[in-house]
Specification:
The complex is a heterodimer of chains A (476) and B (148). Chain A has 476 residues and is mainly α. Chain A has a domain at 269-476. Chain A has helices at residues 3-9, 11-29, 33-54, 72-97, 104-121, 125-143, 150-181, 186-191, 193-196, 200-216, 226-232, 235-256, 258-263, 270-289, 294-315, 318-345, 361-364, 366-380, 386-400, 404-430, 443-461, 463-474, and strands at 60-62, 67-69. A two-stranded antiparallel ribbon of chain A has the order 1-2. In chain A, strand 1 (60-62) and strand 2 form a beta hairpin. Chain A is globular and about 65 Å long. Chain B has helices at 4-29, 36-39, 59-111, 127-132, 138-147. Among the domains of chain B are: 56-117; 123-148, no CATH class. Chain B is an all-alpha fold. Classes of the chains: A mainly alpha (476), B mainly alpha (148). Chains A and B meet through helix 2 of A and helix 3 of B.
Chain lengths: 476, 148
Amino acid sequence: MTANTEIFQLLPHLVIGVGIVLSVVIEISTKKSESILPWFTILIFVFAGAHSIINVYDYQILFGGMYAIGGVTAIFNFIFTIGAAIMVLNAVDYIKKSKMNFGEFYILVQSSVLGMMLMAGARDLFMIFIGLELMSICFYVLAGINRSRMGNTEAALKYFLLGAFATGFIVFGIALIYGTAKSTSIDQIVFAYEYFITDVLFLTGLALFVIGFLFKIAAFPFHMWVPDVYQGAATPVTGLMSTTGKAAAFSVLIIILSAVFTQNITNNFEILFAVIATLSMLYGSIVAIAQDNLKRMLAYSSIAHAGYMTIGLAAGNIESVSGIIFYLTAYAFMNLGAFGVIALIEGSNEENLDINSYSGLNSKSPILAGFMALFMFALAGIPPMAGFFGKYYVFVASIKADLTWLAIVGVFSSAISVYFYLRVVVYMYFKDSTSSIIIKNSFTGLLAVIISGLLVLVFGILPDTLFSIITSVLSY
Amino acid sequence: MLTEFGKIFIFLLLAIGFVGIALFAAKLIRPHRPTKEKLLIYECGENVEGSPWVKFNIRFYVVALIFLIFDVEVVLLFPWALTYQEFGFYGFLVGVIFLLILGLGMAYEWRKGDLNWDRTKPNIPELSKILTNKNVSNVKIDEQIKES
């Protein structure tokens, strides 16, 4: 392989990396950076996403086994970049409205996406750690980007303290894995997984590593930061954290446990994942019923969705991996869309987050009400939307792995969750407006909502377009 | 059979035990005659005044962060400076790119005004403002006039 093809394969990373530096130059050289940077950011994200998905079948290992390109990594890169592009499109007017119009916002978003891409492509524990830190530190800052609001600062501090604690778990896990496997290369660890897993220290290290990432995906016993952080952070930032951040953590879990998924080795963590999945689904769905604040409700629903995806980890076969990836893609776009609608309605000081603000929305803005209903149906998992097929593939995988009870719990929990999702729809269509909220016209915000709505519909009506790519990529 | 980590663990236990036993033995043997001066935080010197938890300027953190970045830069540049002749022009280019990115960060800080140390303006009381404030009693006004 010559150096030229390597550089061509790494174009998405290089474009974003150079884009960060250029954004800094734009930020210090012109006064009008606030109007240039969002479009520049969207441009490089769309380019990186398109490049990844076009070269999806071109699987290569670069840099002496440190980094992988193409295949599953490319699909994850697609989720990160397109999700972040939609979020930036949505945020253009939002951050002007809430007076946090710093150019740093876009630079931090670009850096966090680069970190996620490093996590998804890493084939070495140190690369994973570098990517994780790049992503997390940018998220800590992004959570508190609106310094003038108390909730924002609280969210950033809570996220930082608990996130740093989880990172400690991950580092300690890496230390124990390295101590027993005598290598940080994931390929070598996966190759001799069956031999290593009998070692108690290796098992402990892997468990610590997995627990650290379960924190990042917001699964049940490690979820306590989620409601406060998701509610406190600025709405587009919450959308980014809950979708692409979760996808990045899942990409690492899939890579580190790939021996279980591909080589038919007994899944030592089956019980752990099954219990965590059950608790997350039920806890998230039941507690979300009591929430009146929409952002808090979506935070608890995010815990429940982490539970559904963890079913796939418990099932531990190749179908479950493709199910998780499809679910993550669907979840990214429906959640970004839902947060996009919330960002348009909540007003300049987050005063319209209560569910009563949504009563009679249909008479004020039929388009927004229609899209919000679409996203709520999709999150609840009603058939023509993408959310249904995400759940379907994961449940089928768990039945194939003789975990039928887990699938039943999943269906039961999604039946509970229908209540609080459809409650929003009922408020929008069947209640008279009680508050006089003014919805500001925001063309870019509406465009972001429409794009994510279309993607949810496309992946729902034609799930095979994406699913066939995922399964064919996973087969080698 | 102990692993290498097991040996480290025994060392850890020994270290904790050594400290514990030493402190306990000292407590048994030493005389115990406390006075007020002995119990002060600084036994010789000034008396303690006020709480140490005072607010201080956030710019100290900014300066500390900038210092940290350039400190790490120096550490990373030493091995590069020792071996860059072996790598030729390619090695030189890598170092230059590294320095350019760091320099860009410095330019960013400068341009954003993070290196300006703005002084807090002294709050000088004005007679006219004090007189219009009806909540302030006459005695306090006199005191403030004397102070200013």
